[in-house]
Amino acid sequence: MTDCSALIAKLEALGLGDAPIEHVAAENVEQWAEVLAGASGVPPGHALTKTLIFKPKQPKSEPVAPVMVVIRSDTNASSKAIGQALGLKDLRLANEDVLSEIFQTSRGSGKYATGGRLSPFALGNVAPDHLANVRVVLDKALLGDSARRIAFHPLTNTRTVFVDAACLRAFVASVAGLKQVVELDFDAAPEAAAPAAAAKAKKPAAAEEDAAADEATGSARLGIEASKDKDFAKWYRQVILRSEMLDNYSVSGCYILRPTSYFVWEEIQKFLDAGIRAMGVRNCYFPMFVAERDLNKEKDHIEGFAPEVAWVTRAGSSEMAAPIAIRPTSETVMYPYYANWIRSWRDLPLRLNQWNSVVRWEFKNPQPFLRTREFLWQEGHCAYLTRDEAWRETLDILALYRRVYEELLAVPVVEGVKSEKEKFAGGVATTTVEGFIPATGRGIQAGTSHYLGQNFSKMFDIVVEDPDPTKPKIHAHQTSWGLSTRAIGVMVMTHSDDKGLLLPPRVAETQVIIVPSGLGSKNTPEEHKRVADTCLAVEARLRRVGVRAASDLRDGYTPGFKFSHWELRGVPLRLEIGPRDLEKQSVLSVRRDTFEKAPLPLDGLETAVELMLHRIQDELLIRARATMKDRIKTVMCWDDFVPTLNRKCIAQIPWCEREECEEQIKARSTRDALQDEPEDEKEPSMGAKSLCLPLQQPQDHPIVPGQTKCIQCGQDAKRYALFGRSY
Amino acid sequence: MTDCSALIAKLEALGLGDAPIEHVAAENVEQWAEVLAGASGVPPGHALTKTLIFKPKQPKSEPVAPVMVVIRSDTNASSKAIGQALGLKDLRLANEDVLSEIFQTSRGSGKYATGGRLSPFALGNVAPDHLANVRVVLDKALLGDSARRIAFHPLTNTRTVFVDAACLRAFVASVAGLKQVVELDFDAAPEAAAPAAAAKAKKPAAAEEDAAADEATGSARLGIEASKDKDFAKWYRQVILRSEMLDNYSVSGCYILRPTSYFVWEEIQKFLDAGIRAMGVRNCYFPMFVAERDLNKEKDHIEGFAPEVAWVTRAGSSEMAAPIAIRPTSETVMYPYYANWIRSWRDLPLRLNQWNSVVRWEFKNPQPFLRTREFLWQEGHCAYLTRDEAWRETLDILALYRRVYEELLAVPVVEGVKSEKEKFAGGVATTTVEGFIPATGRGIQAGTSHYLGQNFSKMFDIVVEDPDPTKPKIHAHQTSWGLSTRAIGVMVMTHSDDKGLLLPPRVAETQVIIVPSGLGSKNTPEEHKRVADTCLAVEARLRRVGVRAASDLRDGYTPGFKFSHWELRGVPLRLEIGPRDLEKQSVLSVRRDTFEKAPLPLDGLETAVELMLHRIQDELLIRARATMKDRIKTVMCWDDFVPTLNRKCIAQIPWCEREECEEQIKARSTRDALQDEPEDEKEPSMGAKSLCLPLQQPQDHPIVPGQTKCIQCGQDAKRYALFGRSY
């Protein structure tokens, strides 16, 4: 990342009046607006901007001719209008290579330019021989009001500068050798005038750039263009958007769960709900709102959550007397009532769960499924008379979470305990199932089950008489545990590929897609009909035995189109049926995971299909588990630590378990990574944190008390811990 | 209700400086605070108060000796501290009779005194011969700051007066002949000092008075004291609180759904979800937040909802740039995306549903289940190419809603269409299932299915090319439909009785409770064990065939206690098993609905129990249907209209269907009721509104076009309509 102090100096020389504002990272325009709203020294009525790079369609042999567009953040940068103004055809958003190579801006600056690091000041990074190919388009409306300040990120999204129109013009003019500079009136652009197009342009802002990119790519948006290996972040977004798992939403950090992904969630719900019900837990529903006084009751707990709490302060047109929080989690919502309901040891255990949504208004970059401001989960909250019962449940639930991942999602996880630094705010101990994303080499917390001890019961006065009346009162021993829609993201990242989504059969809404094939204009209408009828008959037979089958009998699409369509959407098994198959009284099966083809006789098809679905389910887990096992490396000296991470692995190290050491590991691994290794632009190196202390410690190199040392600090190691980069 | 103008005059004579504030009704302290926060002319830093009436335990022959306590609204009025200060024993909150007879305050002033109509100024209503029995306790903290204004409702909760400490003291002093006036320091009360008690006192405010009342009644809180016939509102609250269906919550208008009621909701979900899935609807989840610009897009729609929208304006410690609404319903959340997703007629129909919670911050008196600020529901949103398909679905869903009520909840409903005045804001037509609460004679909207026409599709640009390319584009025809947790309240009101809750077997978490009986100290341990073992064996046998059975083998409780315990909680069937039953190889069954007893042979018990559960389910519906039929009266002249309502019936009238006429009916029925009939204090008369135009019109008196006249305005009647008082 280019340092921006030289730029600031240049801006000052050009007459910049206001001091830049330093702030937390803003990854999109909503966050940027929020951050500025909370900062002091911000000029009133300033305009937020976005800076986009387009490029025309051109032969690969020619040098890239980028068009930089500087425009109000809430305005549609019509590629048509820009093309007309510049006399260029087929303008589309430039990919990230252009950004990094020519403008030297880093990851996140592409589609997310809105609140990212790209600004007109990136022109200062362009090599002189490139400048002659660069055009600049300035939004006229930004320049109209000479008093108004215009806000930009000067190559970093943790700083904002405010310049006036004269300064912006002066800066652009100071960049010598540009091909062309144009001021364009976007409000008069042809698209804005036509009502239908205008309505479509009212599309939610967060989705705007993506949709622009999608539209620019035309029919190609039906498939995945990005590569899982080469640009994982872009690949992930394409997979979940284009498979129709998810859509972007107009409120930043929130996403729409479309039926394909919601079905996965419902399958998780069914499995997990049956499991916890069998353990004796009952479902209930507590309100989503928390009074401020209840939220603030447990000090450590609220410290952990307060920065992310969303507050309701207004109803209709009236201000509320006291703001009301939306639950980030429900300990402080539920436990005052536990105190009321639990009066005697006979009232224990109290075991409740709810399926609900919670809100954590994080300012970190949102990630669909993995980090969203509202998410769905279940949260269980139980109170017991004894420590042992509470601990037993903590681990029973953890085992159930492991089964959700392994048995439903075909995703391997490691059961473990969190370090003191990483445990749940306010609890005594957090157990966790940790996942692993091979493509990035990062760990991911996949579900946690907390033993809360008596911390909350003391704070909320959840107390009963001892059954033995001669003994003192007992504060309940509590647990809380949650698993969220994050699981869906981990599943997608694990199995999907450059063809698109890949769903494990158990959670696929459509498990088998039946496609007519081998038909052409030479075939008679009767042959077409016989094939279609067989498709429907096979569908009916499969449905009768509980297989979720569907037939794609749409007219006007080729079999090849349909194959890609359902591959993109992750259907685990395809059956192709054509006239030749009918002759042979068989169908052709194609596995989504391996693309293996095998004919299956129509006779006994149900059993063969069920078997194949089971096999796909099992083999997905087996493959993922082998990869994970291969990528967890036991590391016995510090020198191997960062290189292991850089090979996209998790390091299993003998560790002292001290919080101070954990912080040193993070700092030291960040530093080492920056010094020793070439930085990967797409996935920048970052410090490692502890993922967990595995319940199953390695049997081959046991820790020898007093002899085995922590590889970082050299003090006595207590257990092996997994350390890695993580989500 | 006593007029308060005389009081205001008296207060002015005593030196009241501020003009009283007029406002909407505030039924509790949270609403009061909200209302005042939104009003102008409110003195800063004022103290909100509550006024409670306690009475000591005393022989019935003695005159009642009420203690009026005037205290800060957020302070616990410790009965122990008051008793110590006054030298009285066993103080408890007085019941409503004391309030109405001695202080002449009306309904809602009892437990809800916090924000209700009771204030020290009610002393002005006390007859002189009673005053000598009345004690007054003033909260010292209210009187400490001579500049601070103290807020009271002067006998009406639509007005607030602000007085200072001197004025309050002067008013109380001006009431001649009081037995005793004490200023008490509640912060120094003994309970406040002991940490455990203090924590219990931190109990949520809204639940405080109820809990105080509950605690005051001691063991009696195990049963229902109020009568369904005599004090329906109190009865309803006791049933749902004491059966553990629901608990009050610290945020006003929100309630906790405890497992017993949430189980009912889950059964509704299962049934309805299977039904809509079979119709081809898929589940999804949209975010709970809506951007202001999307919410405001459909004008009529937002007018209907804007006054009740809750706004998030702050995240962590930063103000948001633009406030974000919490969905009151999801039309404006979902339809911008429908516009994106629906590009061709091939994309239709689009049929989505979600199970979620919505927030409507109503300022009307909340009612558990029936009117709550957050509630659970499902909302279906479908888009079709043609009007006919959309209409067909609207009615199919309505039929499904009817089946939920009839088949699961054993509650009869009438299918109909809403009047123009009562239809969904923004839609073309609303169909409805209307319920009826016999105990109050009021109708209740039980579920609605809307045909939205093209109103929203035009506003949100949900448009496709006609399959015939020579024809113009087509805006989608849409539906939306929802059924909420309100259904649970209707079910409770319909079946439950003075013994407590009564659950229809299909939605009862425990369908059969097995209780050992007929055992005493004379029986040997072996006999005890044999009975217990048989209970468990019966439980296991019933569970094996899918009956939700449980055994109550708790030690230390009598069979009678257990019978009442499970009757209160609504378990539809009880099996009693004692030594004599074992001899006869039978068990004694007792129905919760009729209390009929019948021995059932152990041999073939499963079938007998299943049959009995089916019979209970069926008979509950048959009885409720007979009552409803009996209470829907065809009324052919206006003079019979209000008397019919007053007999707790619904009037079915020939009606012109004009909105103006509907308003006249409401106004005229309110006026007539006030003039002609003695007012029922518990259920005040109110105007009638249209409930629906039944799909099934009466066959015996068909409307003769041009001849049958509207009974209110005399214009031509179009159809029969149901009119009634309603929830």
Automatic annotation (TrEMBL), chains A, B:
Record domain Aminoacyl-transfer RNA synthetases class-II family profile: where: 235-504
Annotated stretches, region: Disordered: 667-686
EC number: 6.1.1.15
Cross-referenced SUPFAM superfamilies: C-terminal domain of ProRS (SSF64586), Class II aaRS ABD-related (SSF52954), Class II aaRS and biotin synthetases (SSF55681), YbaK/ProRS associated domain (SSF55826)
Keyword ATP-binding in annotation: yes
SMART domains, alphabetized: ProRS-C_1 (SM00946)
Record field: catalytic activity: tRNA(Pro) + L-proline + ATP = L-prolyl-tRNA(Pro) + AMP + diphosphate
GO CC annotations on file: aminoacyl-tRNA synthetase multienzyme complex; cytoplasm
Coiled-coil blocks: none
Stored CDD domains: ProRS_anticodon_zinc (cd00862), ProRS_core_arch_euk (cd00778)
Gene3D superfamilies found in the cross-reference section: Anticodon-binding domain (3.40.50.800), Bira Bifunctional Protein, Domain 2 (3.30.930.10), C-terminal domain of ProRS (3.30.110.30), YbaK/aminoacyl-tRNA synthetase-associated domain (3.90.960.10)
Biological process annotations from GO: prolyl-tRNA aminoacylation
Source domain of life: Eukaryota
Entry keyword set: Aminoacyl-tRNA synthetase, ATP-binding, Ligase, Nucleotide-binding, Protein biosynthesis
Keyword Ligase belongs to the record: yes
Pfam families attached to this UniProt entry: HGTP_anticodon, ProRS-C_1, tRNA-synt_2b, tRNA_edit
Enzyme class: ligase
Molecular function as annotated in GO: aminoacyl-tRNA deacylase activity; ATP binding; proline-tRNA ligase activity
HAMAP family (alphabetical): Pro_tRNA_synth_type3
Family from the record: Belongs to the class-II aminoacyl-tRNA synthetase family.
Protein's recorded name: proline--tRNA ligase
Organism this protein belongs to: Coemansia javaensis
